[in-house]
Amino acid sequence: MDKPHLASVPPPSATYDLILVGGGLANGLIAWRLRTQRPDIKILLLEAGETIGGNHTWSFHDGDLALEQRVWMAPLVSTRWPSYDVVFPGYARSFDSGYASIDSHTFARVIGEALGPALRTGARVESLTPTTVRLAGGECLRAGAVIDGRGPQASPHLALGYQTFLGQEVRLAVPHGLKAPVIMDASVEQQGGYRFVYLLPFGPDRVLIEDTHYVDTGVWEPERLRANIAAYARTRGWTIAEVLREEHGSLPIVLAGDFSGFWDELDGQPTSGLRAGLFHATTGYSLPHAVRLAERIASLTDLSAPGLFAAIRNEAQAEWRGQGFFRLLNRMLFLAGSPDNRWRVMARFYRMPAPLIERFYAARLHLLDKARILSGKPPVPVPAAMRAACMVEPHMLQPRQIRNSQ
Q1: Is 93 among the domain residues?
Q2: Dihedrals phi, psi of 363, to nearest 5 degrees
Q3: 244 located within any domain
Q4: Residues 149 and 66: beta-carbon distance below 8 Å
Q5: Domain around 219
Q6: Each residue of 135-170: pLDDT tens digit?
């Protein structure tokens, strides 16, 4: 008689209290927070790669986090700046607002040292359930709960645009002269979508140059983006002496969705990060959401799979309700104007008061902030803006509508 599949057998007792699958930002912070705040909880973090964190740079504004959150996150911060700049055609502005970045090397070192044997790398997962994980080779691990944090998953319940990017951290032949990050230089050729270059100066001659596009599909062309970076460096008068590393990604930008349908589809499986829809709908920034989720999970008394699923769903539902205005702005950005003119929406926004912009990034806009953003002459045709505003369900946003926005 054949033996039953181990994953289908209810575990008599949990080997771990919690297993986290995927060593990205959200799961890494959850594991680290639990290890430091609740060392009695038996956890295991599984990562398919050689190290956790992959090859990424995560950034945040000081205003995105409360002071106590910035304190406990401080060991992960690799670089911090007291200000940042933005650039648009005919317009530039500096903001006296703190900005910080976490590189994946620092992330992996700090969290890896804290977890010790509670971290397993090179662990390829074949399947999982809310309480079991089957690894390549057949090993089956059991836990009171399993959190799936392996990045976004396609869903028919979300209508999306995308933020695609490729960044190269380079060493220049001479110092770059930057005093602060440039989080948007949209003075560049737009190339069929809202395009900007993102600059993080990590040293006098070391800088991350990232070519970023808000586009209608997640398809990206790495060679074109590399050529864009090389051309941008030349316009700055920079000679790239060495490419130190390269990172790329495609972040979802939510236009509309069915929250209940999205979560029902998960069928009780606890998730985290982008897989749970926990990110800023317009910017794609996910670090503040990951920080809040880590704190929430570390405070829970019920770490069972049903308890975790309910808690994470409640967290995501609160974020979804709070970000309706950002989805409206996204529809206006993607649907109400021609792709090459999307930069005008952002240029207008960056002329607004600095405190409003800080609250925008923190997803804590006041009612008056929202009224101010929508007031005045819009940078897109009014009829198109009104139509976009009314499209609140995924079925209203057919692919042709996104691609052919005029």
Answers
A1: no
A2: 60, 40
A3: yes
A4: no
A5: 158-250
A6: 998 999 999 999 999 998 889 999 999 999 999 999
pLDDT confidence of residue 68: 97
pLDDT-derived band of residue 399, with 50, 70 and 90 as boundaries? very low
Let me know the angle formed at the C-alpha of 213 by 156 and 260, rounded to the nearest 5 degrees.
Answer: 20
Would you state the pLDDT for residue 7?
Answer: 38
Please count the residues of the chain.
406
Q: What percent of the chain has pLDDT over 70?
A: 89
Region of 391 please: left (phi>0), alpha (psi -120 to 50) or beta: beta
240 and 268 housed in the same domain:
no
Please tell me whether residues 227 and 359 are part of one structural domain. no
The verdict on 40 and 145 lying in the same domain is yes
The string of DSSP letters for 257-290 reads: E-HHHHHHHHTT--B-GGGGT-S-TTT---HHHH
Distance CA 230, CA 380 (A): 32
State how far the Cα of 51 lies from the Cα of 61, in Å rounded to an integer.
26
Contacts of 154 (CB under 8 A, 6+ apart): none
Please state the separation of Cα 373 from the chain's center in Å: 23
**Statement: residue 197 has pLDDT above 80:** yes
For residue 254 the two structure tokens come to 């939510």
- Classify residue 1: in a domain, yes or no: no
The last residue of a domain, from among 292, 322, 352: 322
Answer yes or no: is pLDDT of 333 > 90.
Answer: no
Predicted pLDDT at 154: 86
Same domain, 147 and 23: yes
- Tokens 């948007």 belong to residue: 184
**Same domain for 130 and 25:** yes
Is 392 a residue whose pLDDT tops 70?
no
Same domain, 196 and 227: yes
Domain boundary among 299, 322, 345: 322
Question: Do 300 and 345 have their domain in common?
Answer: no
Task: Report whether pLDDT(10) > 60.
Answer: no
β-sheet with 91-95: strand ranges across: 91-95, 84-88, 182-185, 194-203, 206-215, 158-172, 240-257
232 with 342, same domain? no
Number of domains composing the chain: 3
Q: Within 13 Å, how many C-alpha atoms sit on residue 340's CB side?
A: 5
pLDDT digits 0-9 by tens, 84-108: 999 999 999 999 999 999 999 999 9
